[in-house]
Here is the input.
Amino acid sequence: MQVQEAIAQETDTTVDRLTTLLRSKNIHYDEVRRVDDTHILVRNIDPAQVSQFRDIFSAQYSNVWDMAPAAGDPSATRSL
Here is the structure.
């Protein structure tokens, strides 16, 4: 169970860091949250800033997280 707890903690830490990073870059969004231990949801990024978000995400998180559209929600990005 310790491994699962560590994964959950890392996901929570990533949510906090990503939220801080998006705010510091003035990227507008409605929500950043942990869906479960291995998924993070970023909802409603300003369409004019999606490219900037993707660049930041790729530079900071692509070695650990994958990006994919959230199922059933075209305005959201899900990280795995």
